Inverse folding.
């Protein structure tokens, strides 16, 4: 903080001095004059104004200029990332109510992805990095913070139902308002899960494909008659590593 002081110049015949505490010009006669001045309540050291700043995107407040300069906002990205991002909008109150009525994760996921809709605490799926754990409540405004656990459960369910071991998601998302102004940016650091049980591979057009490293075994029968074959039944029981015994 820089202070600028403006003084009235003394007359040529007048002897003055500059007080180092209050930066005031005082008539000089002897040392007792200075001691008397310093002892008075009106002689105070100028106090610097406290630093105050706030990130317009995430709302983080700062009391030090150095921290404001070093701030790595979790809802911002590089210019290159923002240009390639897929545009999503915030769901309306009616749409949010419809999402809450859905029973299956896969249904929620596909509806949000196809409609390119942001639903607080529901969609998209966000993986919060350790360095940004303190922003978890903030991330819940823009999606589901279950991250890798959500994808693992969804893929296992999908594979068991006969689907492919793959989910395609946007690598980055730009969240815009009704007037097309960017509200927040979800970077790959947030959207791409980090899990030892998942494989993530970049695709073209700002997309990532996610799959299970070790997908569950699907229970398949080559012929209808095998449904009643005890040897086939034994092959798929819990004792042999399956999560559930076969049932008709």
């Amino acid at each position: 903080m820089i202070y600028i002081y403006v003084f009235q110049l003394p007359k040529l015949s007048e002897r003055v001095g500059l007080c180092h505490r209050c930066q005031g010009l005082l008539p000089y006669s002897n040392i007792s004059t200075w001691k008397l001045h310093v002892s008075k309540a009106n002689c105070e050291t100028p106090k610097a104004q406290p630093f105050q700043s706030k990130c317009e995107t995430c709302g983080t407040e700062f009391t030090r200029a150095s921290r404001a300069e070093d701030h790595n906002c979790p809802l911002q990205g590089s210019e290159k990332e923002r240009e390639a991002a897929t545009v999503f909008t915030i769901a309306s109150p009616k749409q949010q109510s419809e999402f809450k009525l859905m029973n299956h994760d896969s249904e929620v996921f596909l509806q949000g992805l196809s409609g390119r809709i942001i639903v607080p605490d529901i969609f998209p799926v966000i993986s919060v990095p350790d360095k940004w754990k303190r922003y978890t409540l903030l991330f819940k405004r823009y999606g589901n913070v279950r991250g890798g656990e959500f994808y693992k459960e969804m893929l296992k369910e999908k594979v068991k139902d006969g689907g492919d071991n793959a989910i395609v998601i946007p690598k980055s998302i730009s969240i815009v308002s009704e007037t097309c102004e960017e509200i927040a940016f979800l970077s790959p650091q947030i959207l791409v899960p980090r899990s030892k049980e998942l494989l993530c591979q970049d695709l073209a057009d700002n997309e990532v494909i996610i799959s299970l490293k070790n997908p569950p075994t699907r229970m398949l029968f080559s012929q209808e008659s095998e449904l009643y074959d005890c040897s086939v039944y034994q092959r798929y029981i819990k004792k042999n590593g399956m999560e559930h015994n076969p049932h008709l």
